[in-house]
Specification:
The chain contains 26 helices and 26 strands. It has a 7-stranded mixed beta sheet with strand order 14-26-25-24-15-22-23, with helices on both faces. The protein has a 6-stranded antiparallel beta sheet with strand order 6-5-7-13-8-11, with no helix packed on it. The protein has 5 domains: 74 residues, 2-Layer Sandwich (Alpha-Beta Plaits), CATH 3.30.70; 262 residues, no CATH class; 64 residues, Distorted Sandwich (Calcium-transporting ATPase, cytoplasmic transduction domain A), CATH 2.70.150; 124 residues, HAD superfamily/HAD-like (Rossmann fold); 110 residues, 3-Layer(aba) Sandwich (Calcium-transporting ATPase, cytoplasmic domain N), CATH 3.40.1110.10. The two termini are 54 Å apart. The chain is elongated. It has 745 residues and is of the alpha+beta class.
Length: 745
Amino acid sequence: MAAAVTALVTTDLTVDGMTCAACVRRVEKKLGKLDGVTATVNLATGRARVSHPAGISPQELVETVEKAGYTAALPEPPKKREREGEDEVEGGRQERDRLLITALLALPVLVLSMVPALQFRNWQWLCFVLAAPVAVWGAWPFHVRAVRGLRHSAATMDTLVSLGVVASFCWSTYALFLGGAGDPGMRMPFSLVPSASDGVAHIYLEAAVGVPLFVLAGRFLEARARRGTGAALRSLAQLAAKEVAVREGGSERLIAVEDLGVGQVFVVRPGERVATDGQVTEGSSAIDLSLVTGESEPVEVGPGSAVVGGAVNAGGLLLVRATAVGADTQLARITRLVTEAQAGKARAQRLADTVAGVFVPVVLALAVTALGFWLGAGADPQAAITACVAVLVVACPCALGLATPTALMAATGRGAQLGVLVTGPQALEGLQHLDAVVLDKTGTLTSGHMSVARVTAVPDGLGRENVLRLAGTVEQGSEHPLGRAIAAYARRELDQPLPEVEEFSALPGRGVRGRVEGHLVEVLAPEDELPPGLSVAEAGAHTPVLVYVDGVAEARIEVGDVVRPGSYRAVEWLRRLGVRPILATGDGEAPAQAVAKALGIAEVHARCTPEGKAGLVRDLQAEGYRVAVIGDGVNDAAALAGADLGIAMGTGTDVAIGAADVTLVRGDIEALADAVRLARSTLVTIRANLVWAFGYNVVTVPLAMVGLLNPMVAAAAMSASSVLVVCNSLRLRAWQPSPTRRRTR
């Protein structure tokens, strides 16, 4: 049973045919009826993220969506996705052509219906001839989707539009042929508010053409705007190089980037993009990382420097050895994180989708109620039908479905451009409500670029050089900045190759151990009881570690680090915001207190193990704090996962990044200020969208029911509602960091 619960896989589907939040709700419910399946559907992207047991195949998921009345497909390989993009462009052209032809036919009808002075003899018959193709061909997509929904016992926004057009056109046909409106000399006044009949049935051809015209125009503009919200994600995808020049045996050959393998050396000429993550083997240059990490200043690189795929070579010729390809590159991980973030939903959006699930049936009931009420009250039949059509047309669940995903797409894309990656709306909500932040020291508040300041060997021991050689050897396997500094110092000081280490293991929060030349070598953070001659009282801000050989303390190595310039501003900004900064580090008391004093942090927890950090988070949460943890190492992973919000430095380990909700790609803690401000702007935008989407319907539907809204005006208002929501979200694409942040870049 337990295996069945845990054996879940995630499949992404592309869903076509959804037009409103009611469609989203229907697809989610249909998939959710399968045993063990949960689905999150995004209207703005047309994607469904489905978690399901391994026993349910992706093809079954596709068939389930199709049974709901929509089309679905599995994600295509990159080359097919390019063709898919071409198909999308072609589909956009068809929509544009339908809109243009509809406009050409509908505009004369609207002008003649709205300007009585222009109504000539038999004008109404010309309008009928022009309106017929609009009501049938122009509104055909709505009719098709409405019928498809009817076959599956579903009602969506298309149902409302189709019924509105059919009702308006059928009533107008009746009025022309049987109601006296076909008289050659008939004149019809125009009013924004429906008026009583003067004995001749009014025609509503302007509604029959206006509804499809305005809805087509609204959806065309909406689609363009929605494509704009995903522009940042598409720009990330476009950063990937298509071809790369590989150097082998002194010669070059051009290959597709998909064929590049780890370990191959490739050429990056001035102005070209780095094809994939790698390490420079020859040459020096400055590379522009602004489109990958948001860092505006070019970074100098040379032999041994790591470079990121997608960066632009701004200087000389570089030879780079590939260290990661395909889905393992940093650019691919960034794109994947942004895509996953856009698939999520905020709590408010889940409420909106729940409402949208019953919205269309309720609107249909209200329309029938309005029709029955007016007929029962003895009103003119055309007034009753007008109120009914207005209710059908004005109601708009589209805005409800677009309120969150469009804002989230724009915000996550903008965040990626600024070097801030969030995993989804829950992370954005968490960023807004922080009370306390637990900060790691090394690699987070400090640069992590450490160097050995002093080596103190025990008198009559193995000697400084021997101990340094053993310590440097065992630290070669460490990912911690202290370990890398010791290994680099040993190689540089001894000027000879270091021997091999066996049985290497990392001791989270303490250090490393391994066997070198038959000796058990341990490099550990000092305990409270220190061996004679190795006191660390004078170590100051340096971080001390002790070297044990076969269980005997042989030396103390002090490693120095510097505080990041952005840390001062970040901690000050947190204090101004009312957030409690707390320093928790595995380092000793002296270096921890030195950094805390420099940054003005009052609460310090030194010699903190991974379990201790996780316990500190739990204690703060028990006190009622909403806690964020910022870290970069393996020892931070447990605390990151247990916090209300985990924030990883992009320069940290994959374990830390995988456990975090937010990643600061540049490895600059000051970017946290950008993340929080962007989160607040996004949530304000989402709330504004939802208030508008709900408020619009609360106001307009009653007006339509009491006969105070012309169907044509209702159609225009409905289309404008969705467009306004999307345009409000688009403002996030232009969001800028604070002036202080811009000056410091």
